[in-house]
Specification:
Number of strands: 8
Structural class: alpha/beta
Order of helices and strands: EHEEHEHHEHHEHEHEH
Number of helices: 9
Largest sheet: 8 strands, parallel, barrel
Mean pLDDT: 96
Bound molecules: 1,3-dihydroxyacetonephosphate
Distance between the termini: 24 Å
Helix content: 25-40%
């Protein structure tokens, strides 16, 4: 398993349902991976094997994994299949999957266990909706998500948490820097086990705000959607 502690920051590009071979080639040719940081590209699964990871500190991640390990489950990809294809990371419980594909904390936990059994690193996404934030439920929602979706076998060496406020995804809105830092601190203080977890921030990260976000004490990197599709922009973020 990759030694996460060697990296000062982790940047994960979530391409969601975007990309094609031409895009991939141009992107890879221009991508400039920095030596202190871990960079992970999560393309749609059919392109996972097309990302060449022969640049140092560059890894591939899947956007999802099956709840099941094998059997009659049309359309699914298991953790062992991802592992066999050299994939090291996998997003789990992204809010789009929770919202559009009805993923629950309970199914997310099983997915994490499947990945950990294969020595892959789950990136567990948590975050509150705008309504929950306005009703001052952020802490309660995040703690429930942590408690129910992160398995006991997860630790700071084999798992990552990504805090993505749902209302900040793709909207251009972000919490204030103070809010981001204090939510990350809250997550790390959930209990002693989480103290040294890598906690990434996601939601409208761009080249213009990434430096400020990343210099926050409790932020260990970013999970980037839209801005990761523009390689020049992504290069600036990870530099
Ligand atoms: P945006 O960076 O487009 O807001 O998306 C964030 C995200 O969902 C990454 O997983």
């Amino acid at each position: 398993m990759i030694n996460l502690s060697q990296y000062s920051a982790i940047f994960i590009a979530n391409w969601k349902l975007n990309g094609n071979f031409t895009f991939l080639k141009e992107y890879y040719d221009k991508l400039k991976v920095s030596s202190n940081n871990c960079t992970v590209i999560c393309p749609p699964s059919i392109y996972l094997n097309s990302i060449k990871t022969n640049k140092e500190n560059l890894y591939t991640g899947a956007q999802d994994v099956s709840f099941y390990n094998e059997g009659a489950y049309t359309g699914e990809l298991s953790a062992s299949m991802l592992k066999e294809n050299g994939i090291d990371f996998c997003l789990v419980g992204h809010s789009e999957r929770r919202q559009y594909f009805r993923e629950t904390n309970e199914s997310i936990k099983i997915k994490c266990e499947n990945l950990l059994r294969e020595n892959m690193i789950p990136v567990v996404c948590i975050g509150e909706t705008l309504e929950q934030k306005e009703n001052k439920l952020t802490e309660e929602i995040l703690f429930t998500q942590i408690k129910k979706s992160i398995p006991n076998i997860a630790n700071n060496k084999n798992s990552i948490i990504a805090y993505e406020p749902v209302w900040a995804i793709g909207t251009g809105l972000t919490p204030t820097l103070d809010e981001i830092n204090s939510v990350h601190e809250l997550i790390k203080n959930f209990n002693s086990k989480f103290k040294n977890f890598k906690v990434l921030y996601g939601g409208s990260v761009k080249s213009t705000n990434s430096k400020d976000i990343n210099s926050l004490k409790h932020v260990d990197g970013c999970l980037i959607g839209g801005a990761s599709l523009k390689v020049d922009e992504f290069n600036t973020i990870i530099s």
